[in-house]
């Protein structure tokens, strides 16, 4: 009797894109006998859904997941991760910096990703 077992389908994914300093999480198919993740910056893990805390730009790139099922069959697949650098905003003041109360001063922020909050 010859038994032909089907290959597992790894289906790796992540919550990319992420910003530097956040946590990058990976996901894969459940129910496999083994998991072997590898990627940039010497990343490796043997758990189903690993994560990288305080992620850096060095985590950018392609990650490979190899899984084995109960029949001993193995398969690999990849997922691409993007990590974005958070750049400080550039603040441009007007030509005149002397303002008398209760007047206002307008500052312009550029190179911003997300929300900018002004305070005194």
Automatic annotation (TrEMBL):
Transmembrane segments: none
UniProt name for this protein: Ig-like domain-containing protein
Organism from which the protein derives: Lacihabitans soyangensis
